Amino acid sequence: MSTTNVPAGASSTSKNKMPPGMVMGPDGKPCKICTAFRNWRPGTTSGIEGNERGRAGGGGHRSAAAMMAALASGTASEKTNAVARIDGPPPNCPPDVEQLGRATWTFLHTTAAYYPERPSPTQRANMLMLLRSLPVLYPCTNCADDFGEDMKTHPPDVSGRVGLSRWLCERHNEVNEKLGKERFDCAKTDERWKDGPEDGRCD
């Protein structure tokens, strides 16, 4: 990570390295919405989470989007998820990158699960507009840029519910792979995001 800028009048000895996991925004300042709360507030990180974060390669452009997707996908370990709950922002605080990511992926996957089998031209156009708006409007600019670059290589499939669900699952899996996480079985998107498991525990 790069070092933080030294404020005017501060001595060079006051330079501190960026905390691990802290992400810089496009303005050259620490990006709060791009950073997990435990990394924004040093001292809240546990040893367990530190090991997980180390495997993710610290902060930066790729790991911010990767952490967002991995936590939302349910592939993160039980220990990591437990730490995320403990170290997340207190109630009624703005979300950190992990809360925002989980909410966004939940919304996208669930929207795809209920997308029509045979969407009308208007429905296809609206879905494309929704997906194409993310790289422009998503608050975490590093995450947005990463997703936008991925969309250039893999244009969205809005042909129907199955195609869209698979497309989102594949995008999510690409990010999971960047973290060294397991791939989600894209044949199970309906079970995860619409129908629930066959044992009925979600009914």
Automatic annotation (TrEMBL):
Family matches, as SUPFAM superfamilies: FAD-dependent thiol oxidase
Catalytic activity: 2 R'C(R)SH + O2 = R'C(R)S-S(R)CR' + H2O2
Protein EC: 1.8.3.2
Chief place of localization: mitochondrion
Enzyme class: oxidoreductase
Domain ERV/ALR sulfhydryl oxidase per the UniProt entry, residue ranges: 93-193
Region feature (Disordered): 1-24
One MF term in the entry's GO annotations: flavin adenine dinucleotide binding
Keywords from the named record: Disulfide bond, FAD, Flavoprotein, Mitochondrion, Oxidoreductase
Polar residues bias: start-end ranges: 1-16
PROSITE patterns attached to this UniProt entry: ERV_ALR
Protein localization: Mitochondrion intermembrane space
Pfam families: Evr1_Alr
Protein name: Sulfhydryl oxidase
Originating species: Tricholomella constricta
